[in-house]
Design a protein that fits this description.
This protein has 961 residues and is an alpha/beta fold. The chain contains 31 helices and 31 strands. β9, α9 and β10 form a beta-alpha-beta unit. The relative contact order is 0.07. Helix content is 42%, strand content 15%. The protein has 6 domains: 33 residues, no CATH class; 187 residues, Response regulator (Rossmann fold, 3-Layer(aba) Sandwich); 199 residues, 3-Layer(aba) Sandwich (Rossmann fold), CATH 3.40.50.2300; 94 residues, no CATH class; 125 residues, no CATH class; 58 residues, no CATH class. An 8-stranded mixed β-sheet has the order 7-6-8-9-10-16-17-18, sandwiched between helices. Belongs to the glutamate-gated ion channel (TC 1.A.10.1) family. Glutamate-gated receptor that probably acts as non-selective cation channel. It is found in: Membrane.
Length: 961
């Protein structure tokens, strides 16, 4: 064994002494720090018998332990003063009063529900003590607007946008709300209803269930839901009541295929309270839940919380940490940070009101309250629940996760964010804009273990057969016919076109619909009830639908819903056909209307005048006496009809105008010929009347379908009631036409297209001449907001596009034809100005342009006359008119005439021209002058064929003279 030297032992002893001194100094410093901390009283008001109270207290204690472990150098220490509210509003108020008055707490954490929070907030506002709640979610607390209230939990209304986005993604248009009958349940319903209306989804019914409802009461309410067509339910309840409702719904078969159940954060945020056995009754349920981002700190805290909570509450073996515990933890952290930032040792109350007569007035006012709420509002940090901070006293809306209950738990199928809407993952690199597309959700297992998206509606289970009313008819039984002797308001087996179409539509529905037909008849009435009265019965709920020849009009659509029409739309006018219309001497005038005749005549005159102006100075054909001028000009214009004009045009401007005019005349002539041929050969298609104004002017009688809204349309057109005759069948209508207007019959009839097509199919000597009004045809009637309307409308389109519709039409002789077909519709055969105004505009512009160019050139050529100031303006005008009336000396046409007559052009002999040679000066006296003139001698040409110099000089002198 080696012996240590003494000097080394000395050094080692000194080191031990030094270490002991350091440890003593550290202990002294720690002791000094511990004694220097300032205790700050904080109140805690919770219901210690409830889950949230037990959960919150554990998390609050752990938050303080962790906070001061991380910040051991802080000078303040929160001291908890815990009070049990006993789950009672009065108990919570008493606890808050005791804490403020006796303990002078600087803040209060807790108040489990919104009802308790209302009372405690009032105390805190008077004492200037911040109230921090991590579990009161009711939106009603927002309306209090107390600056001393901080909601360290999400407002329940923040989830409504996420729920409405899911509804909109699947296109459900009706939703039933099921909620608990207390402030927790009722607070969010107005916000949820508004959010659903924004996506065009209505709430036809609200199911309210008491928190203490018995099994019988719950079953009775579920029975009401089963009698409705809506199959989408949103449940906003506590976990205990919600689990009970789902259990009863499952017993009654309401958790099967076709149903949709959506639960709010009231259940999903405290999922640990839902019994795992109850999960079997909730298979396929959708829900929205506050999203908690994963972190290592959260994982570590969950393990520590589990051990701590089980130590304090051994009976909660299966308890799991939820979002309310995390909010309690983060809220305590925020309060501890704010108190530390106060930087003061004065935590006393102003007790100037201590001698007040009542306890509610005797407590003091915190001196640090105003500054503390400012520090709480500005506190921001990343806590266990995510980003934590107050905005206007509330947590900011965060991400919601969309979950689907499946098996023994739930699985996430997507997310909703305020900015991007429904998304599959929280990865926004490729996301643009707000979306509510269901393609952004994962696979959902719906109730009944189905992966097919439910339609959201179905046939009521306790009213399996629809009660459908049909109108008995005295005429037009091809559309609806009820057996004779049928008792009103009893079941019938009707026939007819509309009935066959409805049966075909029901077969095309995506699900089975059972129904019975009932004959409707208005009491105390000779005939079948008015259609408006029949529709009223659907509005009042006496019938589920109306099937028949019911027209879709605006005033009816205000209180019932119609499906898409299954017939053609519109009200038309029908008149007899006149076969001897064209057997008269003036039929040749019919092809063109009066305005077109007048316009054409005016343009013939105008074009003749334009041609005369352009040709007068340069063309001998357009010169001479006045009557010759007029005759030639208008002869030329009118001769273009047959293209037989013989006059040769000289001016290029005139040629330009005539080319365009001939094009217009060609189109007019061809159109006239075609129209006249049609009038002479198609006599059977000519109506007796083509215009409503003609009927009004002649005061003719007209007919309308009895009991139809068409009567009102005819009155608005201007017909007097005394001139209106009703009919009930095709035979009645034909009889009225046969009598004629003069014999108490009619000259025209107004009705909807389906009726008129049936009439024309039976009687062929009538035709449709005019469409009077645009309506949507016949449709099936359902109550306002009925979810069946969309599916029935889709089935109507399916039937119309298929062969079945053609078979039904052929069976009842109702052909779907276009009313513009020449066999069923006739309008005026005369051609109007509206078809040719473009042509007249074109030729008019060309003529005016040619005149402008001609006048401009003429004025420019004789500008010297216009500038001559020695004579008056009137004389200058007369001089210009005189010049215009004379030949144009520079026109090449007159020069050619001169050449032809004299062989000269500007005094120069034209090569090859035969020009007479003047006699020499020495003419023998014995030769008479007449003889010399009769025998002119030809001037010898030179070798190149040009005139001799002597001859050229002679002509030049003559021209100059």
């Amino acid at each position: 064994m080696k012996i240590i030297p003494k000097k080394h032992l000395f050094h080692f002893s000194c080191l031990l002494v030094f270490c002991r001194l350091l440890l003593a100094e550290a202990a002294l410093a720690q002791n000094t720090t511990a004694t220097a901390t300032i205790p700050v009283n904080v109140g805690v008001v919770l219901d210690m018998d409830m889950w949230v109270g037990k959960l919150g207290l554990t998390c609050i204690n752990m938050a303080l332990q962790d906070f001061y472990s991380y910040h051991s150098n802080y000078t303040t220490r929160l001291v908890l003063n815990i009070r049990d509210s006993k789950g009672d509003v009065v108990g919570a108020a008493a606890a808050g009063l005791d804490l403020i008055k006796n303990k002078q707490v600087q803040a209060i954490i807790g108040t489990e529900n919104s009802a308790q929070a209302n009372f405690v907030i009032d105390l805190g506002n008077k004492a200037q003590v911040p109230i921090i709640s991590f579990s009161a979610t009711s939106p009603s607390l927002t309306s209090i607007r107390s600056p001393y209230f901080f909601r360290a939990t999400q407002n329940a209304s923040s989830q409504v946008k996420a729920i409405s986005a899911v509804i909109d993604a699947f296109g459900w248009r009706e939703v039933v709300l099921i909620y608990v009958d207390n402030e927790f349940g009722e607070g969010v319903i107005p916000y949820l209803t508004d959010a659903l209306e924004e996506v065009n989804t209505r709430v036809p019914y609200r199911s309210v269930i008491s928190q203490k409802a018995t099994d019988e009461e719950i079953e009775e309410e579920l029975n009401k839901l089963m009698t409705m067509q809506t199959r989408v339910f949103i449940v906003h309840m506590t976990p205990e009541l919600g689990s009970h409702v789902f259990d009863k719904a499952n017993e009654r078969g309401m958790m099967g295929e076709g149903y949709v159940w959506i639960i709010t954060t009231g259940m999903t945020n405290v999922w640990s309270l839902v019994n795992r056995l109850d999960m079997d009754s909730m298979q396929g349920v959708l829900g929205v839940r506050t999203y908690i981002p994963k972190s290592k700190a959260l994982d570590s805290f969950q393990l520590r919380w589990k051990r701590k909570f089980l130590q304090d509450n051994p009976s909660y073996v299966n308890a799991d940490l939820d979002i309310f515990g995390l909010w309690a933890y983060d809220a305590t952290f925020a309060l501890a940070m704010a108190v530390e930032k106060l930087g003061t040792t004065n935590f006393n109350f102003d007790v100037s009101n201590a001698n007040a007569r009542t306890d509610l007035e005797s407590f003091g006012v915190s001196q640090n309250g105003p500054k503390l709420i400012q520090l709480l509002s500005s506190t921001r940090f990343r806590g266990l629940s995510g980003e934590f901070g107050f905005i206007n006293g509330q947590l900011d809306s965060s991400v919601f996760q969309i979950i689907n209950v499946n098996g023994n738990g739930e699985r996430g199928v997507g997310f909703w964010t305020p900015k991007y809407g429904v998304v599959k993952k929280l990865d926004f690199r490729n996301v643009t804009g707000y979306s509510t597309s269901k393609s952004n959700l994962g696979t959902i297992i719906w109730p009944g273990d189905s992966q097919v998206d439910p339609k959201g509606l179905g046939i009521p289970m306790y009213r399996k057969r629809l009660k459908i009313a049909v109108p008995p008819k005295n005429g037009f039984r091809e559309f609806v016919s009820v057996p004779a002797g049928t008792i009103p308001n009893s079941t019938v087996t009707p026939t007819g076109y509309c009935i066959d179409v409805f049966n075909a539509v029901m077969k095309a529905m995506p699900y089975k619909v059972s129904y019975d037909f009932y004959a409707f008849e208005k009491p105390d009435c000779e005939m079948a009830g008015d259609y408006n009265d029949l529709i009223d019965q659907v509005f009042y709920g006496n019938y589920d639908a109306v099937v028949g020849d019911v027209s879709i009009v605006a005033n009816r659509s205000s209180y019932v819903d119609f499906t898409l029409p299954f017939t053609e739309s519109g009200v038309v006018m029908v008149v007899p056909i006149r076969t001897d219309l064209n057997k008269n001497a003036w039929v040749f005038l019919k092809p063109l209307t009066l305005d077109l005749w007048v316009t054409s005549g005016c343009f013939f005159v105008f074009i003749g005048f334009v041609i005369w102006v352009l040709e007068h100075r340069v063309n001998e054909n357009f010169r001479g006496p006045l009557l010759y001028h007029i005759g030639t000009s208008y002869w030329f214009s009118f001769a273009t009809i047959t293209f037989s004009q013989r006059e040769r045009l000289v001016s290029n401007l005139a040629r330009f105008v005539v080319v365009i005019w001939c094009f217009v005349v060609l189109i007019l002539v061809q159109s006239y010929t075609a129209s006249l041929a049609s009038l002479l050969t198609v006599q059977q298609l000519q109506p007796t009347v083509t215009d409503v104004n003609e009927l009004l002017r002649k005061k003719e009688n007209v007919g309308y379908h009895d009991g139809s809204f068409v009567q009102g349309i005819i009155q608005r057109l201007g017909f007097d009631l005394s001139k209106m005759k009703n009919f009930n069948s095709t035979d009645d209508l034909n009889e009225l036409f046969t009598k004629g207007s003069a014999n108490n019959g009619i000259a025209a009839a107004f009705d909807e297209i389906p009726y008129m097509k049936l009439f024309l199919a039976k009687y062929g000597n009538y035709t449709i001449v005019k469409s009077i009004s645009k309506i949507d045809g016949f449709g099936f009637v359902f109550p306002k907001g009925s979810p069946l309307v969309a599916d029935v409308s889709t089935a109507v389109l399916t039937v119309i596009e298929g062969d079945r519709m053609m078979q039904i039409e052929e069976a009842w002789s109702i052909k779907q034809t276009n009313c513009s077909d020449s066999r069923t519709s006739v309008s005026s055969r005369s051609l109007g100005l509206g078809s040719f105004w473009g042509l007249f505009l074109m030729v008019g512009v060309a003529a005016i342009l040619a005149l402008i160019i001609f006048v401009s050139e003429f004025l420019y050529e004789h500008k010297d006359v216009l500038r001559n100031t020695e004579i008056s303006v009137w004389d200058r005008i007369l001089e210009m008119l005189k010049i215009f009336d004379d030949r144009d000396p520079n026109a090449h046409t007159f020069k050619e005439t001169e050449i032809r007559e004299g062989g000269h052009y500007d005094g120069v002999r034209i090569r090859g021209a035969k020009v007479p040679v003047e006699e020499p000066a020495e003419v023998p006296a014995e030769v008479p002058v007449e003889a010399a003139a009769e025998a002119p001698a030809e001037a010898p040409d030179d070798i190149n064929g040009t005139a001799s110099p002597e001859t050229e000089i002679h002509h030049a002198n003559t021209n100059n003279s």
